[in-house]
Amino acid sequence: MRRPFVAGNWKMNLDRASAVALAEGVAKGADSLVGVDLAVCPPSCYLEAVGRAIAGSKIALGAQNMYHQPDGAFTGELSAAMLRDLGCTYVILGHSERRHILGETDEEVNKKVHAALAAGLTPIICVGELLAQRKAGQTMTVIRRQINGSLAGLSPRQMTGIVIAYEPVWAIGTGEVATPQQAEEVHSALRKIVEDRYNDSIAGSVRIQYGGSVKPENAAELLGRPDIDGALVGGASLKVEQFLGIAEKAG
Ligand code: 13P
Asked: Could you tell me if the CB of 128 is within 6 A of ligand 1?
């Protein structure tokens, strides 16, 4: 069975002191949680401090982005090996904010996925449609293009080291959560795409998180759906009680 996985994407928020306090609070509260994998993804400049704060706890460390090259003249970028060095287990790749604000393409995401896996990181690959695309009935065309582009060239063995996150762009930071039915529909279609690309055993084991205005109040209904294996949480992950409240619903 798939073990639920809840990760907090802190985005470009907090300062050092509040990031450490949040990490300590979450690590302490997670002690009593069972049956769920947990991670926090702070801004890269706080990875080391947060890593220290969660050391020895049930919380894993993740980054929000990386560059695909192993090293060299790439001013401002971080490599997968550097993230490993900082104690990261996970890296979020292809988040919609990177796709739509910073112009990241499926091809770039795919290069990053290969580099992350080669370095021993678990990529959390994000896909999701814009509101206009949903309204135009293009949701699955967009999702299919993003996931196939992001997974290009991955062997079955590599595919077992991947997490997928479905984050409808219109539900991110808007308070407008996808209904459990809307989310489940895309999650089960994503699993089918993985099955068609690989096989039913890999499709049955790949974890697919939902992201977009997840809160303790709506988490149980979303996470109760058969193909929703956890959550990638933005705003609510910045509050200890809210993040733990969501994690509790997943376990
Ligand atoms: P919110 O939970 O703030 O909607 O953000 C979701 C998200 O983008 C997580 O990666």
From this structure: no
